[in-house]
Amino acid sequence: MIKTFRITLKRSLIGCTQTQRATVEALGLRKRHQTVKLADNPANRGQIFKVQHLLDVQVEK
Fold it and tell me: What is the pTM of this model?
């Protein structure tokens, strides 16, 4: 069974750097309180770590 992350954008992107905005967009999040499911792999883990202060992350099995 592949582990997945359920991530939700909790904070606004106002005041964030351009790279943080691009990272959130690459994760598939467009607006606040939107939730997406992503596979657990090193690339997604790195992106989540970069903007972890803006997200709510839950691990699903």
Answer: 0.91
Q: Are 30 and 21 in contact (CB under 8 A)?
A: no
| DSSP secondary structure letter of residue 47 | H
Task: Read off the tokens for 54.
Answer: 């803006």
Region for residue 14 given its phi and psi (left: phi exceeds 0; alpha: psi -120 to 50; beta: otherwise): beta
Instruction: Going residue by residue through the chain, which has 61 residues, state the pLDDT in tens, using 9 for 90 and above.
Output: 689 999 999 999 999 999 999 999 999 999 999 999 999 999 999 999 999 999 999 999 8
Q: Tell me the CATH number at 15.
A: 3.30.1390.20
Structurally, how many domains does the chain consist of?
1
- Whether residue 47 contacts residue 55, with contact meaning beta carbons closer than 8 Å, is answered with no
